[in-house]
Amino acid sequence: GHFTEEFYRACESHLADRGLMGQWLHAYGMTDDTFRDAVATFQKVFPYVTVWEMWVSGDYLFIGSKTPYEIDLATMERWLAREPIVDDLRRIGVSTPGGLLGDLVATQEDLAGFAGARIQTDDGLHLEFHAPLALAGHPRPSARRSVLVVSDRLFLPDRIGRRERSVHDLACLM
Q: What is the pTM assigned to this prediction?
């Protein structure tokens, strides 16, 4: 399966020591519980995780690593100044590090409370069975709501959303 511990272990075996793994997760057909299960499974292999909402689609992106990593604003500003990157991000209305980081939904610390979630394995593909059932009448998961359950430190409702953030706002978030 695509969202299983075994799949992530195979990916991990190809990463450099400080490598990053990215995993897209669809929001359709997911409940808050299955979302937590997906995060917990990813986090079991890549213990240092951030979760991003892809505002264009409403889906999610997990970025994980075997080792701690930080989002360095100075490096981000240099990368965002490169012409091909500027052009790509301009098409989705992002022009500053704050605009990009406005999609950050959860950091490692915020995900610590996901204990008890069910780990997805090749022998237990519960996400693949529960997602179609959730399509019939369940709203898409809210990573924000899921994170709010485990952390009120960072993601207060008025602090989240698709908006440009200043470097000062970002310093408060990190």
A: 0.73
Spatial distance between the Cα atoms of 33 and 54, rounded to a whole number of angstroms: 20
**Strand spans (E) along the chain:** 21-25, 48-54, 59-65, 104-106
Distances in Å between the alpha carbon of 36 and those of 70, 78, 92, 119, 130? 23, 34, 28, 9, 13
CA distance 111 to 149: 10
What are the pLDDT digits (tens) for 82-91? 988 888 888 8
- Residue 105 tokens read as 């939904």
Longest Cα separation, the chain = 46
Contact 117, 49 (CB under 8 A): no
